[in-house]
Amino acid sequence: MPEPAQRSSAATRQRILQAAMIRFARHPYEDARLRDIAADAEIDVAMVHRAFGSKEQLFVEVVRAAFQARTSIEEQTDPPEQAFAREIFDPLLDRTFGRVDPMDIVVQSLSSAQAAPILRDFILEDVIGPIAARTADVQRDAGRPALTSEAIEERAALAAACMTGIVLFRQVLKIDLVGDDRRERLEPLIRAVLSAALHPET
């Protein structure tokens, strides 16, 4: 059983993450100040530095906690195109940190010279990398033609770009043409698009 000090430290870290997630979702990266995050979490700003080291590292942890992409991908049991098409309509998000839409964090941060590289690295490491690994496993198990690592990564990047665009249309731009009421027609189409992106023709 964790010691009281460890439990307190973990609870403080979670409070900081929750406060930071809300700040980064509602304000541009440069305007989300550590002192404001600390005030929202009702702690001294020194504790934020102690727990995360820097604003950049805190943002990294916020993005990972908000999206949980690697965990979601690695726990998939269905072929990637099926799981991703389903999760576009039924996102598997842990609401431990409140009802923050992860895409709001992306929208607020894309124009930031400091935050954009962090988002890029996150997509490469926590999204494209796991998609490529999962796709390689599925192709091997299905006896599909072998692809080079670079080719699989290219296909994973294309699939990730397709999914990101669809999610932006749905959650940020609120375009009805890809809304929930069209799921029955759209989900098979999305699955086909992702399958074409991820797998070579057989």
UniProtKB/TrEMBL annotation:
DNA-binding segment(s): 33-52
Outline the extent of the HTH tetR-type domain.
Answer: 10-70
- Entry annotated with the keyword Transmembrane helix: no
Record's InterPro entries? Homeodomain-like_sf, HTH-type_TetR-like_transc_reg, HTH_TetR, Tet_transcr_reg_TetR-rel_C_sf, TetR_C_16
Stretches of the chain forming a coiled coil according to its record: none
Q: Which SUPFAM superfamilies match?
A: Homeodomain-like, Tetracyclin repressor-like, C-terminal domain
The alphabetical list of record keywords is: DNA-binding
Give this protein's Gene Ontology molecular function annotations: DNA binding
Name of one Pfam family that matches: TetR_C_16
Q: What is this protein called?
A: HTH tetR-type domain-containing protein
Q: Which organism is it from?
A: Tistrella mobilis
What is this organism's lineage? Answer: Bacteria, Pseudomonadati, Pseudomonadota, Alphaproteobacteria, Geminicoccales
